[in-house]
Amino acid sequence: MRFILNKNLKSLVLKILILVSSLLINQALAQDLRIKISSGQVEPLPIAIADFTGQEGKANEIGRKISEVISNNLVGSGQFKALESAAFIAPPTSPSVRPNFTDWSPLGVKALITGSVKNIKNQQVEVEFRLWDVVAQTDLIGLRLIVDSKAWRRVAHIISDEIFQRLSGDSGYFDTRIVYVAESGPQNKRLKRLAIMDQDGENHQYLTDGSFLVLTPRFSPTTQEITYLAYFKNEPRVYIFNLETGQQELLGSFPGMTFAPRFSPSGDKIIMSLATKGITDIYTMNLNNQKVTRLTNNSSIDTSPSFSPDGKRVIFNSDRGGSQQIYIMDSKGNDVKRISFGKGRYATPVWAPKGDLIAFTKMLKNKFYIGVMSQDGSNERLLAEGYLVEGPTWAPNGRVLMYFKQDAPIDDGKSASVNLYKIDITGFRETRIITPSDGSDPAWSPLLPN
Amino acid sequence: MVKSTFISIGLHVFFILVAYYGLPSFKVKEPLEQPIDIVEDTLISSKTVLKLGNPNKEVKKIKKDIVKEDKVKKKPPPPPPLPSKKIIAKKNIELKKKKKLKEMAEIIKKKPKSKIEKNKKVSVPKVKTKPKEIKQKQKKLLARGILKTLTKPQPIINKDKINKSQNNKNVLNKLKQMVGNTSKRSLEPEAKLTQTEIDKLRNYISKCWETSIGASEVKIIIPLKISANMDGSVNSVEIDDQSRYVKDTFYRATADSARRAVLDCSPLPLPKNKAAQFKSFFFDFDTSFIYRY
Fold first, then answer.
1. Looking at residue A449, what is its pLDDT?
2. How far is CA B205 from CA B127, B227, B250, in A?
3. Which chain B residues are within 8 Å of A96, Cβ to Cβ?
């Protein structure tokens, strides 16, 4: 039989197909109501940090200390505000017990941290914590560590890092160390020693005895090594100091050097500025074969070089344009571009570990500023100011800066005090780091290996 | 043959509709379980800070009640009181009356036999329908009507075709109605909600959204699927992009903050008489504003 469709049937089929397709398209397009929320509050998150409890469910001395360190870390980051423990209705007894959230939500806290410390044997303790979302009434993260009881402070830093990452999304920076130049004595006979401490100023130690003047320590991004500049018989020498072994290695003597070299991201190369015949240019040195390569060749002063996190570009300051400004070039010294165009002079640019921002020192109208800008020079923001603020160094997560600040000199023969400060990149919270003596030239370490 | 094509088309349409509406995987995204990021798992005990009292006593009480109820059920029902002599006499009279009534009823039920003779032929007088005299005007009108019907050729109308076309029209109308309904359904919420109402809700949530500077890393929109009750209370909050929630720490932290904002803001200030539109809807949290900080 022949299959014949008359005109009416054809048109009917066509209409049905059109209608069915439109039905399906309509159904597919029939979406739920959508409301865009394009603003919110970037404010410190209210949290409650309960004292870590002992074996009987009551707070003990180490537990209280750990809670205190965690609280100081999180509040010091500028992203959290901790509720006073006196306001707690029912302090938690154990991190394993689900808290009664109705005791916490009226206090306005969004997150709760509970924990415990239990003695095991041979001076070892088991530290356990849990982070709770009070609003969603769920746990977010838990961790248990077995450590030597003397290492409770480091455990507190590790726990702080975990909490910080879970609540902010950024990696933490609390389990890190700071190397700086400890200064003491009168202005005309200043004693400068290399010192190291935790990022919160605890566990302070001197690395050098002060027999030589030391300057500008820099951390390796990959290993627990630092480079620093020391003057031996008025000749600047660059040393590499291994923090794990305590051994020092002389990298070489570099006449005309004023700043210590910085490591490349891979750690196998250093970049520095050297002055020869009154002209300062930028050089790199391969640490494996000590081969030196010149990157800039200009009659101006090119100094303070810093690698980008991918190692493909270099940022530095130069007066080649008439005033001291920030420039960018590739790692071979080509394609030089100026990126700072604001008023005043710019110095000591440092690329953030994430690569999104560049920190710098700015001098304008007899004042110094610490600021940040995008890598193309836009979005410049000044975070801190003072009579002399200089030497910014980035925390490994790229969200906090440390620098030193010097007060105005007083005409009484004493030198003005110099102190270390840290500030988050929002610029809302500036905190002084307490050191045994004056401190300058800080350098922030990467996260310590576990 | 035509029938078979029509049936096949119908079946195709039917299967498409069944596949779309019937199978849940086509329409609804099954929610994934939200994993908890635990570096090292710590078991949660069954302990709680809630004071629950002594549960054993309550159990005993319940058991006692059950035992009592059983005992009550096992007791036999009390015997009915013995009837008095007067009541017996009355009952006897009633029984006699009932018997008489039954007898009467039986007599009535017996049908009397009747003989009815059927008339075989009924003679109806014949009526003369044609009048002898017809008016001339009437004749003219009749002639015109006949002419009209003759001048206009009528198509040969097949009854089957008429039925088919009517059926087709019905099918088309039904489909049109369906399409019309869906389009109306999809447009209804946006058409009804005013910009002021949306802005009010937006501002309300914005005040509750406390997020971190870390969210500037994300710079994208985080959709949350919300289900709200008629009184504005939030029934459920679902993070839509679960795969990214698991992988991306920034996304996860920001999505959590957005979820807290919605739960904290509950109940939502939904416009009156329009709360039904918020049974299932999305809040798209845009983090681009954080970059300004």
1. 82
2. 90, 15, 20
3. 42-45, 47
Is the distance from CB of B48 to CB of A55 less than 8 angstroms?
no
Question: Minimal Cα–Cα distance from A336 to chain B, Å?
Answer: 28
Report pLDDT for B101.
Answer: 63
Interchain contact A9–B (C-beta under 8 A): yes
Q: Which of A33, A128, A139, A144 should be substituted to probe chain B, the one whose Cβ sees the most B Cβ atoms within 10 Å?
A: A33
User: B160 and B229, same structural domain?
Assistant: no
Question: For position B181, what pLDDT does the model report?
Answer: 47
> Are residues B224 and B282 both part of a single domain?
yes
Q: Are B188 and B278 in contact (CB under 8 A)?
A: no
| Interatomic CA distance for residues A256 and A260, integer angstroms | 11
Residue B46 located in a structural domain = no
Helix axes of A152-168 and B249-265: crossing angle, nearest 10 degrees: 70
pLDDT at residue number A439 = 94
User: What count of CB pairs under 8 Å joins A to B?
Assistant: 223
Nearest CA-CA distance, residue B151 and chain A, Å: 28
Residue B264 belongs to domain spanning = 194-292
Chain A: give the shortest CA distance to residue B63, in Å.
31
Sequence-distant (≥ 6) Cβ neighbours of residue B42 within 8 angstroms? A95, A96, A128, A130, A142, A143, A144
Q: Tell which wins on pLDDT, B172 or A36.
A: A36
| Full strand arrangement of the beta sheet holding A430-433 | A388-394, A400-406, A418-424, A430-433
Q: What's A177-444's CATH class? A: mainly beta
Quick check: A12 and B172 CB within 8 A?
A: yes
Q: Interface pTM (ipTM) of the complex? A: 0.80
- What local confidence, expressed as pLDDT, does residue B14 receive? 85
Architecture of the structural domain at A45-168: 3-Layer(aba) Sandwich (3.40)
Closest CA to A431 of A21, A20, A79: A79
For chain B, give the mean pLDDT: 64
Residues of B in contact with A143 (CB under 8 A): 38-40, 42
- Is B153 part of any domain? yes
**Average pLDDT over every residue of B57-75:** 41
Query: Which stretches of A199-234 are assigned E, i.e. beta strand?
Result: 205-206, 213-219, 225-232
| Residue B250, token pair as written in the block | 């920034």
Q: Enumerate residue ranges in chain A where pLDDT < 50.
A: 1-4
Angle between helical axes of A152-168 and A61-76 (0-180°, round to 10): 40
Question: B292: nearest CA in chain A?
Answer: A379
Measure A173 CA to nearest chain B CA, in Å: 13
> Which of B16, B43, B218 comes nearest A96 by C-beta?
B43
Q: Which two tokens stand for residue A97?
A: 């017990």
Indicate if the pLDDT at residue B164 is higher than 50: yes
Q: Which residues of B touch A140 (CB under 8 A)?
A: 36-37, 256
Tokens for A366?
């007899």
CA distance to partner chain B, nearest, from residue A247 (Å) = 35
User: Phi/psi class of residue A339: alpha, beta or left (left: φ > 0; alpha: ψ in -120 to 50)?
Assistant: alpha
pLDDT number for residue B192: 72
* Residue range(s) in chain A whose domain bears CATH number 2.120.10.30: 177-444
Q: Could you tell me if B186 and B241 lie in one domain?
A: no
* Residue B248 belongs to a domain: yes
The total of structural domains in chain B comes to 2
Q: Cα A152 to chain center, whole Å? A: 23
Q: Do A5 and B2 touch (CB under 8 A)?
A: yes
Same domain, B185 and B253: no
Q: Which amino acid is at A425?
A: I
Torsion angles phi and psi, residue A139, rounded to 5? -90, 145
- The alpha carbon of residue B201 and the mean position of all alpha carbons in its chain are separated, in whole angstroms, by 29
Cβ atoms of A344 and A364 within 8 Å: the answer is yes
The model's pTM: 0.69
